[in-house]
UniProtKB/TrEMBL annotation:
Coiled coil: none
Name the record gives this protein: Orotidine 5'-phosphate decarboxylase
Enzyme Commission number(s) of this protein: 4.1.1.23
Annotated catalysed reactions: orotidine 5'-phosphate + H(+) = UMP + CO2
Gene3D superfamilies: Aldolase class I
Zinc as UniProt keyword: no
Amino acid sequence: MKERLIFALDVEDGATALAWVERLRAEVGLFKVGKQLFTSAGPELVRRIVLNGGQVFLDLKYHDIPNTVAKAAIEALRLGVSMLNVHALGGMTMMQTMSAQVRQIAAAEGRPCPLLLAVTILTSASQSDLQAVGIDRPVTEMVVRLAQLAQAAGLDGVVASAQEAPLIRQACGPDFVIVTPGVRPVASAVDDQQRIMTPAAALAAGADYLVVGRPIATASDPVQAARAIVTEMASSASA
Ligand SMILES: O=c1ccn([C@@H]2O[C@H](COP(=O)(O)O)[C@@H](O)[C@H]2O)c(=O)[nH]1
């Protein structure tokens, strides 16, 4: 079950990140490198984690014109990451171009292709946040619509709240990958997340991977916190 747990390396420098990788490598399946750490430590850090046997989800949420996103994703492929993502709101052409070019270069260069994911609606967004940017449709409807768009564009899956996982499963089928941040064990601080679920409920809802950062990183014993989440995930799977 631990292979389905992704730890968010939301830290300020490479040395701190590598220390977390050592501390949690036996407890989690992947390490997520996001905007803070990538801006600070760059591709060299990603290469180093991969070289040391760690699997990386590069969470840079590309959102740009099709050519720019495709070329950035090709460089992510060459870093050896296991997952990368774009914003589904970047649109069909952007996602199709990225997917086609990454798959073509992976085949031509003999590299394993990472899981190509699309962020639907951020788990920190509420219905009123959507309304404020002019989106009047319900969050759930937007998430399913974006997931179907990503699937039609040839992507492997989406990043979404586990709250929407059952609807995504229904719309996109059993093989479409659902990665869920906004995971909060009971009694954990919600922080800036809005659409949250517990680890057990997220798996029961159909999530394939859970992303967890602060509930582990700020725990008094992070190793124990990660183990407790994996135990909760296992109990949900066997229920
Ligand atoms: O919709 C999204 C997409 C990405 N994230 C990222 O996941 C982690 C969550 O960290 P926590 O500390 O467990 O809240 C973080 O790196 C986000 O950038 C997300 O939360 N929601």
